[in-house]
């Protein structure tokens, strides 16, 4: 076993002052974590709130330590906790204190007492699957989104409500470099490549990167767009008309709802499990019943839930699409931010008949500067091309050149691996904070990537009602109601963990928790 | 009077070999031109086809000289031509040759013989006003536009069909410079300005430039867009719904028709005079009759006709809009390319109640690289903002920064004045060529700016039918049918004069003329 001081120094983000000889339990967990998960070094960031560091409040420390051990996977569901006596000894606490900690954790649904056997870790309480589909709905969430954006411009507001990752964590400098080079090279002759479908070089680089990740994309069916939002809009318009019914996950990213709203279509919410994704049985039944024209889904790293559908489910989804002869618009915006080292395959990869319109973007993992998105449109390519022509005509050429050049010349994989570890640690830490401060019964998502958390609070909580006071207190978040056309997630909220939340930001988060607890 | 050699050298594009002592008439006209029109030096480019230079075909030279004198304004409608005897003497031609030239010009409708008085210049034969409005039409011109774009990528095809000016004539280097600077400065903090409505600095610079030209624009009602096409789409969606009737000029730019088509609306063609613009009486009557939801017009430097509506007509248009309480979407894309030194005022300038949605772009006169457009949306600002959010979310920030910085730091007016003179000369020369080679009865527009010509051929000509053979011959053009939802301009075509058409390109143009003449 490594000496305490040495460990503390080796582990980035670890607060050495916590590593005293008395906290062997904590050490033990950390070592376990390093052995069981390659991301553990990052996960191991001090699970304490900064206020607690001096004087160390032992009660709080034990609570934090146990929660963190469970969240990080160091203690798994079914594992038995150390005995009360052992905890007393290791943490130098009285029996009554340790018992209070354990009773609190039991009340929070994290552990359960089994008579004469001790305390056992329970299955994590993820948010429940959403209710079943009711009926197609008109969508009108954009005005709220616009209001939420106002807060993002205020640098005094901690951006837990932002849809953007901290840009400094991306590769802005290198992308800027390629943009400068592109601006130097942009010439009359290149101007004509401005026309849809976009730069051949860029389309080929996108397909090459996909191939590198084991995914087949046909560059000749790809259209370059002004960001992923345009790609989603083009895809929807290519396959459906105003009034048509579009099946979506429930909850779903409000950007997808914007695209549906923008085109006067209706959304049909399909029951969705926060761990496994859309309920395929319900989808299969709903398609003929509601005459669904298309599905608009995020099967991987869904926003806001963070799940990745299993490969077998993705294949089954393709079968369902084939049987009903309807298209899937697949938004895969967060692809590069999956925590697993094994890249997942999008549904598009299993598509043999060109029914999947695959949308993605350069903004989420590289740089939001160029605003380059794309759409591999399958059998809908020509229709998409016409719509691009009629919509925005062309995507800026220097921006296309810059992204093509970046993808050709840079080696982003090492940086991305670091970023993913960082995000994984950020989200684990943020989840700890939420579980600690939010109302009892709050359930937090366990995303497989990306940088957002979804928190489902008790049903009687109204997260929108608390919004203005929270902004006034210097923190934003996204009220859950915006993730559904029916507004069924009024008791939920989304938090961005993709920025450096400091002690002050976390204090505001704690105050939000109290605000939501007291109503 | 300047010595022949000196003049030839002083006038760019003038072929000295033509200026021999025997062609005093030509000299006389050139001097007149310089006196009567500031652009005349540019207009004065040799009006001969290059093939004719050696041996000088005197018959052809006299024809060209007279046509050019009339087109350039050196000889005005009502002016008497020199007598046959004078022409014989000056040009050292036989009486029969001079008579044949004059009879040809009379047959072409350019001059008329008055018994015992001589030959007189007739009013120029502009294309006739278009027919009256029939009924609203579904629009479906985008597939043809996409086909036309294919030819633009082929550098062996002379781009008479291009919608773009030769980019080398714009300010690419300086815009590239500002884009490089922007790429250097793009930083995390600036990322949030990415959100609609767009950069405040850019919106202010746009309003400032407008003010400098005597036009009032409110920067706070302006939304920055991905090119003018997005601005047109946003504007249409802000004021009308699928199926609604939109009044347009006839003919109108196919890009406007694309926006209507893109949104499932109907177009109502209003009779339009190639010199004065839309028929306001007909518009006034059509609005209630067809329940017109909005007008989508180019009141200034209309594409393809090139007219600028008179200021009084613009004011009357505002009155009509007010009376019927409908909005105008005003596309003013070519604003910076007006030939007159006195800037015109857009309809927006007279708008007191926020009914005009004013669209323009940086692409036409500065650089197509950044693809920055804008929309001053008046009372429809908030709706426009929501639509931008739902459509493409944001316009690339480095591009916005570059344009703002360009407008702030560069002094483009001198360059623009030169460009306008150049374009004026290009279009005059191109019109000469068309009148010489196209079927008798062809009428050519007299644009007040921009870089395109509209040619109306005899009614029985089908310009689309000749398209493929013309592409195969190495030249593109835009068939007239695409400028109307009803396809009523099948006998017309649009030519781009905004590039360096060489002898070879003009030979192809002449062959197109023969192709259209023989059917």
**Structural class by sheet pairing and helices of chain A:** alpha/beta
**Hey, which two chains have the biggest interface?**
A-B, 62 and 62 residues
- What amount of the residues of chain A lies in strands? 5-15%
> How many domain units of chain A?
3
Assembly category? homodimer
The span between the termini of chain A is: 47 Å
Mean pLDDT of chain A: 86
Number of helices of chain A: 19
Kindly provide the radius of gyration of chain A, computed on alpha-carbon positions and rounded to a whole number of angstroms. 24 Å
Helicity of chain A, in percent? Answer: 40-55%
The total of beta strands of chain A comes to: 15
The geometry of chain A reads as globular
Looking at the overall shape, the CATH architecture of the largest domain in chain A is 3-Layer(aba) Sandwich
Low-confidence parts of chain A lasting 5 or more residues at pLDDT below 50? 1-56
Note the main sheet of chain A: 9 strands, mixed
Family (chains A, B): In the C-terminal section; belongs to the class-I pyridoxal-phosphate-dependent aminotransferase family.
Protein name (chains A, B): Putative 8-amino-7-oxononanoate synthase
GO molecular function, one term (chains A, B): pyridoxal phosphate binding
Pfam families (chains A, B): Aminotran_1_2 (PF00155), GntR (PF00392)
């Amino acid at each position: 076993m490594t000496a305490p001081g040495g460990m503390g120094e080796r582990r980035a983000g670890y607060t050495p002052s916590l590593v005293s000889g008395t906290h062997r339990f904590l050490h033990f967990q950390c070592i376990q974590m390093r052995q069981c998960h390659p991301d553990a070094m990052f996960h191991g960031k001090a699970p304490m709130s900064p206020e607690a560091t001096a004087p160390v409040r032992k009660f709080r420390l034990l609570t934090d330590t146990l929660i963190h051990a469970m969240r990080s996977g160091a203690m798994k569901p079914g594992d038995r906790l150390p005995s009360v006596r052992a905890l007393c000894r290791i943490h130098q606490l009285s029996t009554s204190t340790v018992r209070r900690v354990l009773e609190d954790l039991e009340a929070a649904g994290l552990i359960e007492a089994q008579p004469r056997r001790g305390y056992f870790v329970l299955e994590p309480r993820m948010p429940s699957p959403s209710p079943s589909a009711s009926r197609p709905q008109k969508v009108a969430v954009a005005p709220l989104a616009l209001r939420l954006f106002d807060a993002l411009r205020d640098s005094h507001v901690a951006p837990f409500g932002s849809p953007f990752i901290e840009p400094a964590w991306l590769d802005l400098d290198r992308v800027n470099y390629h943009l400068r080079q592109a601006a130097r090279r942009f010439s009359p002759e290149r101007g004509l490549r401005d026309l849809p479908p976009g730069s051949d070089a860029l389309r080929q680089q996108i397909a090459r990167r996909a191939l590198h990740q084991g995914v087949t994309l046909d560059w000749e069916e790809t259209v370059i767009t002004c960001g992923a939002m345009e790609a989603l809009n083009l895809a929807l318009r290519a396959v459906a008309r105003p009034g048509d019914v579009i099946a979506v996950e429930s909850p779903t990213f409000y950007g997808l709802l914007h695209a549906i709203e923008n085109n006067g279509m209706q959304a049909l919410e399909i029951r969705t499990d926060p761990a496994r994704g859309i309920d395929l049985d319900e989808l299969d039944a709903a398609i003929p019943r509601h005459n669904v024209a298309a599905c608009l889904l995020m099967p991987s790293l869904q926003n806001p839930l963070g799940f990745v559908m299993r490969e077998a489910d993705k294949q089954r989804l393709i079968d369902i699409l084939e049987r009903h002869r309807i298209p899937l618009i697949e938004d895969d915006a967060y692809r590069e931010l999956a925590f697993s080292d094994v890249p997942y395959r999008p549904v598009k990869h299993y598509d043999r008949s060109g029914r999947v319109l695959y949308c993605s973007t350069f903004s989420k993992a590289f740089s939001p500067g160029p605003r380059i998105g794309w759409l591999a449109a399958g059998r809908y390519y020509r229709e998409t091309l016409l719509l691009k022509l009629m919509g925005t005509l062309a995507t800026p050429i220097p921006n296309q050149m810059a992204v093509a050049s970046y993808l050709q010349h840079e080696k982003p994989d090492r940086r991305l691996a670091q970023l993913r570890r960082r995000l994984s640690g950020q989200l684990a830490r943020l989840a700890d904070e939420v579980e600690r401060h939010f109302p009892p019964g709050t359930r937090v998502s366990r995303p497989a990537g990306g940088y957002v958390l979804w928190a489902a609070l008790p049903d009687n909580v109204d997260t929108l009602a608390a919004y203005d006071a929270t902004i006034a207190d210097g923190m934003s978040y996204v009220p859950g109601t915006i993730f559904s056309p029916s507004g069924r997630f009024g008791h939920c909220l989304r938090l961005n963990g993709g920025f450096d939340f400091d002690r002050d930001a976390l204090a505001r988060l704690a105050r939000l928790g109290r605000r939501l607890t007291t109503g």
